[in-house]
């Protein structure tokens, strides 16, 4: 950002001395200014791969996260649970049954036991894929990309989360915590105050006023709403007036029309199973 500003100010002073130069010369400088200044003024939409690029790969696996980067996603979202031995495992459901070869609650197993299991995908058990640990996912977040860690549990997970995040080499700006659970959000923001925290809401049980009030109460930084909320320009504006950016989940392969509408409304980030499609549907920025 500072490089952009320096380049822009150099361009400006050169433009001043160029007052008597031919018009084509001035035009070139104006184009250069546009290139440097526009991205910082307009801001780009953040494309967040939902459970990795889960429209193409098994959700919440290293394969899905890797695919997200190959598709040009800006961030990945994952879901996390605390294991029996106080570690953190990456999967969506509180039970193993749907997405793995195991059965029963995740919290009843150690991480090592969970990593013996195979991933179930499209009615098959995958030989080479297992439940990742949080550390394994953190290790494949490239520089400049973010990870949205969705906590699926109560605040009891927060000490383990802090221990793992403190030990990882990612910058604070790359780490985001999201959750539907208000007490988890409050505790996590208290313990990890330098990280951005966004309150998740499906809109089934609460109004935008309640979402804003809960975000405020947790000292969180933004709101992350379901497409079913439903999102309107007024709602996004209401969030903005309270000091919160609005993120939206989950965009799917049928949402070609909705994507540009959400951006028009002022939504800043889209969580999607299809990061490549979503990027293509963005209005020209
Ligand atoms: O990113 C938020 C979204 O993932 C919440 O819903 O069920 O996919 O975890 P779910
Ligand atoms: Ca999630």
From TrEMBL:
The keyword Hydrolase applies. The keyword Signal does not apply. Residues 45-282 form the GP-PDE domain. GO terms for biological process: lipid metabolic process. GO terms for molecular function: glycerophosphodiester phosphodiesterase activity. InterPro entries: GP_PDE_dom, PLC-like_Pdiesterase_TIM-brl. Transmembrane segments: none annotated. Its EC number is 3.1.4.46. Pfam families: GDPD (PF03009). It is an enzyme of class 3 (hydrolase). Keywords: Hydrolase. PANTHER family: GLYCEROPHOSPHODIESTER PHOSPHODIESTERASE, CYTOPLASMIC, GLYCEROPHOSPHORYL DIESTER PHOSPHODIESTERASE. This is Putative glycerophosphoryl diester phosphodiesterase 1. It comes from Thalassoglobus polymorphus.
């Amino acid at each position: 950002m500072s490089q952009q500003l320096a380049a822009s100010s150099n361009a400006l002073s050169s433009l001043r001395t160029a007052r008597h130069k031919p018009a084509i010369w001035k035009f070139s400088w104006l184009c250069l200014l546009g290139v440097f200044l526009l991205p910082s003024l307009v801001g780009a939409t953040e494309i967040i791969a939902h459970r990795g690029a889960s429209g193409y790969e098994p959700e919440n696996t290293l394969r899905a996260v890797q695919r997200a980067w190959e598709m040009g996603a800006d961030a990945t979202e994952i879901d996390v649970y605390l294991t029996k031995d106080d570690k953190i495992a990456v999967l969506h459901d509180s039970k193993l049954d749907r997405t793995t070869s195991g059965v029963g609650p995740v919290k009843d197993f150690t991480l090592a036991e969970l990593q013996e299991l195979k991933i179930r995908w499209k009615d098959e058990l995958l030989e080479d894929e297992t439940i990742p640990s949080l550390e394994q996912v953190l290790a494949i977040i490239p520089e400049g990309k973010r990870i949205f860690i969705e906590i699926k549990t109560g605040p009891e997970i927060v000490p383990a989360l802090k221990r793992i995040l403190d030990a990882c080499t990612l910058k604070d700006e790359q780490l985001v915590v999201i959750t539907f659970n208000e007490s988890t959000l409050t505790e996590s923001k208290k313990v990890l105050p330098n990280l951005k925290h966004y309150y998740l809401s499906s809109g089934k049980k609460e109004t935008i006023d309640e979402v804003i009030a809960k975000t405020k109460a947790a000292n969180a930084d933004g709101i992350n709403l379901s497409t079913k909320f439903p999102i309107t320009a007024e709602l996004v504006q209401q969030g903005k007036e309270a000091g919160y950016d609005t993120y939206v989940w989950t965009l799917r392969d049928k949402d070609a029309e909705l994507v540009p509408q959400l951006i028009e409304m002022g939504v800043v980030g889209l969580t999607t199973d299809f990061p490549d499609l979503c990027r293509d549907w963005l209005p020209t920025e």
